[in-house]
Amino acid sequence: MGARSKLNLTLGDANGGVLEPATWAMMLVGFGGLGAALRRRRVGIINA
User: Fold this and answer.
1) What sign for the dihedral angle of Cα 25, 28, 34, 38?
2) SS3 for 4?
3) How is 20-42 classified by DSSP, letter by letter?
4) Per-block average pLDDT, block size 10, for the chain (48 residues)?
């Protein structure tokens, strides 16, 4: 008869849910920079 094959599909790591502290710090700096850029842009529009 025919040969059977197994398909093993892994979509991600099951225990990779906790981010490293450096990742959190980079994310906070990015959000802070985004907020500062939006605030500067909004203040510039109001004062113009």
Assistant:
1) negative
2) coil
3) PHHHHHHHHHHHHHHHHHHHHHH
4) 67 69 95 92 64
